[in-house]
Amino acid sequence: MNIFDFAEKMELDGKKYYEKLAAETPVAGLATIFTRLAEDEQKHYDVIQGLRAGVSGNMPDSTVLEDSKNLFQDLMKDKTVLGGMKKDLDGYLHAVKIEEDSVRFYEDAARKESSPETSALLLRIAAEEKKHLNIMENLYDFVLKPEYFLAWREFSNLEGL
Prior knowledge:
By secondary structure, the protein is mainly α. It contains 6 helices and no strands.
């Protein structure tokens, strides 16, 4: 399996997984997050197909991280959703692993790439995968230990401690 085959499969698998999580969650905000992550994975797949075809890729920046911050704030207001989310901890942890593997894969592929343009595009995909990783780590932490969760690592509320 060559790098393009592997990358395309990885992106399609990620998309399917996020679509599955979106379909299974009863929480509308989470479904939105997972749907947006699936859309990003499709965008990455399209870029990889372009690279395979020799087309210089252009990839718009993702806004899923910024959008997720607002959704997390809404989730934090409604503590009743946590009970239903706890059953999905293994799924969130699996998504963290998928994103970690994706980041490593794209960073490694970028280092091995001889074309500076292709290398830069692979690093952009890796950066987006890092955003996905951040979202899933925060989601896992939020569900696992909400009493200790500090939204998006904003520690400004610790003044005076």
